[in-house]
Structure formats: structure tokens, C-alpha cells
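SEQUENCE-TO-STRUCTURE ENTRY
===========================
What this section holds: a protein sequence and its matching fold, both as plain text.
Question of interest: how does this chain fold, as expressed in C-alpha cells?
***
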Amino acid sequence: MKHLMIKKVKKFVLFSAVLIGAVFSFSPIHKQAYACDWCIDAMIQALPEEWLQDTSGGGAAGGSGSGPTVPVINDHVTAEFEEHRTWIVSLLWEDNILPAMMLMAEQLTAVAMHQVLIIGAMLDAKHQLETQRLLQQLQAQAHKDYHPSIGMCEFGSAAKSLAASERKSEYNSILMSQRSMDRQLGNANSSAMYGNDLDKESRLNQFKAKFCDPKDNNNGLGYMCEAPGADKNRYNKDIDYTRTVDYPWTLDIDFTNGGTPTEHEEEVFALANNLYAHHVFARPSGKLLEPLPDGTLTNLQKKYLDMRSIVAKRSVAENSFNAITAMKAQGLPESRDFLIAMLDDLGVVDANTIDLIGENPSYYAQMEMLTKKIYQNPDFYTNLYDKPVNVERKGVSMQAIALMQKFDMFKSYLRSEASLSILLELAVMDLQDEIENEINPLAGVGELAQ
């Protein structure tokens, strides 16, 4: 039993020595701890019996000491460990480390929340600034896109009364066609109402009073024109298409207001009389045009139908003249001041602008400015250094004007097509008459072929 106790003491001493050595070896001050190695050696060399002796002084059997050393050490070590545990749990952990960790956790939570608040504020500021920047960009873009352009205003100002002028020219063309048919058909209040003789007499009197140039025909017309017109600019305008119709941009023609005919109206009508229906037809009386009792057509009635056919063909040919003349008839005055300003930029003298475009610019004059003259000004090209949207608007305006011009060309093609169809009809008319003369005797209507 004693030997067993000695072995346990040796194991305890060795274990304590190893434990103490391990602790000191991992301690930051383990180098200084090597000085106490002799204590461990002394403990190991001591006899185990010494750890089992009674230290009370009275011996193992009858002494009154505290008993053997090992139990005392065990009790002391146990008490120390318990005290150490109490110190670690109560004093170190509960009183110091745990409150400190709780405070640290609270501090970390507060700091984290504050950091999240800062991040949220940064995100709010980011979105706010991005929104403000987007609004400013849109505002700048809108200011850039909708900035007024002088060049763009020129298109709108020059075309201010274009539609009304076009409609007015179409109305004047219809009235001119109606006047021509009234003259050829002998309607009342026309110069040819009583036939060809009275028509030519009235035209000759007008010629001698207004259009006769005494120097024509090698001064031979001096005998005919005893009192020629005082305005030499009107000489021969009844036969001069270039000076009467082609050269002026605007003619003083307006058949919508009635009243006394203007000089241009007289000149245009005189020119039309010489170009179309120079010889008007005779005026048969109503009695001669009465139908036969059997309902068949008389020869005079047939001739009258042929006359109307010729008048219809003439109206097609005259339609081009009327359309061109009506395009140069007076329009509305809304765009006059703007067209004058555009001509001033081109260097046209102020005194000549009214003579060029007229008091009320015609549809032709406005289209001349929009399709040609506006591009002869160098400012038009320098003004292209403008906002991109304004440049695109100018391009669209140019396309719209080109479309109107193409539509005018289309109507001109239609008039040319109608004139060609009349020429074709006249070309085949003789062949048609030959065929009818060959067919009529076979059908028993030989008298109709005569």
C-alpha cells in the first residue's frame, strides 16, 4: 500500500513538474522561468515518503498535527482552484469581461447602425443628385431643341399666306376659263356676243388705244394709231407673252373683287383673245336651232355641236395659259413684308421690291422665294451652324416645299397630258371621218355622210 502511494506521489510530482514546465514554456517570460528549474529537480529528487509524513510534530500515530502533507496539498490546491474558478467566473468574466463585451457589442451595434445611416444618406444623396442631373440634362436638351431659329422662321414667314394665295389662283383660273367660253359661245355682256365682226372691231379699237406702237411695220402703224397710248410699256403687250405673263412675278389680277379691270387684266385678256379663238363662230338665231318635227337633228344643229366640240378642245389648250396666269395673280399681303426683307438681304433695292413681288405677292412669287431665292443668300448656309434639331427642322421644311413644288409639276404634267390627248384626237379625226363615210352608205344613211 505504501509503495502504491509512493508511485502516485511520484506521478503527481512528475505531472506537476511537466505542467509547470509547459506553462512556463508558453509564457511570454519563459526565459526567466528557466532559473527555477532547480525547484522541479529538487521536487523530483525528494523521497516520496517525505510527502506522506505527518508534519504535526507528534508522529504518525499519536501526534496532534494537521496530518500528512498530500491531503493538505490536495485541499489547498482544491481550494485554490475553486477560488480561482470563482475569480474567473465572478470577478474576471461577470464583473469585467462580460460587461465589457456587452458594451463592446452595444458600441459595435451603434457604430454599425450609424454606418448604415451614413450609407443610406449617401445612397439618398446619390439618387437625388442623379435625378437633379437628369432633370438638368432634360432641361438643357429641351432648351437646345426648342431654341428659336431665325432661318426656321424665314420658312414660316415666307409661306404665311401661301395656301390662301394658291386657292385664290385656282379661282382666278376658273374665272378666266369661264370668260373665254362666254366669249366663244356668245353669251351676254361679252365682246363677241354679236359675232365675229363686233368682236374684232372691239379688239381693234382696244389695240389702237392701248397696245399700238406707231414705229412697228417700219413706222407704218403711225397712220393706224393716230392717238397711241401714253404708257409705252404697254405697247404690243397684247401679243408679247414674255412681258405680259412670263416675266412678272405678280400680276395685278384679281377677279374675286369685281370692279373696273386693271391694266394687267386688260393685257391678259387681249393676249388670250389673240392666242385662243381668234375667230369666233357665227351666232345662229334660236329659230334656226329649233328641232325638226320628227325629232331628227338639222344640219345647223350638227354644226353647232361641232362648234361646241371645238370650243371644248380650245378650253383644254387654253387651260395651261389660264393656270400659269392665275398662279401669278395677286395673293394675300400677309407675307409681303417678310419677302421684302428677304430681297433686301439679297441686295435688291427697296424701290424695286414692290415692282418685283407686288403689293399682294402671288402664289408664284412666294414659291419663287421659297424654292430658289432663299437659297441664294449666304446667310442660309451660315445659319446651318445651328442646333441639330433646328437643322433637321429646316430639312423637313425643305422637303415640304419640294413636295408642294412637285405637286405643281404634277398638275402641269396633267395639263400637258390633256393637251397631248387633244392633239391625238385631232390627228385621228380625219381617219374617223373617212371610216364613217365608208360605213354610212352600207347602213343606209348615205345622206348623213354628206
User: Anything to note?
Assistant: The mean pLDDT is 82.
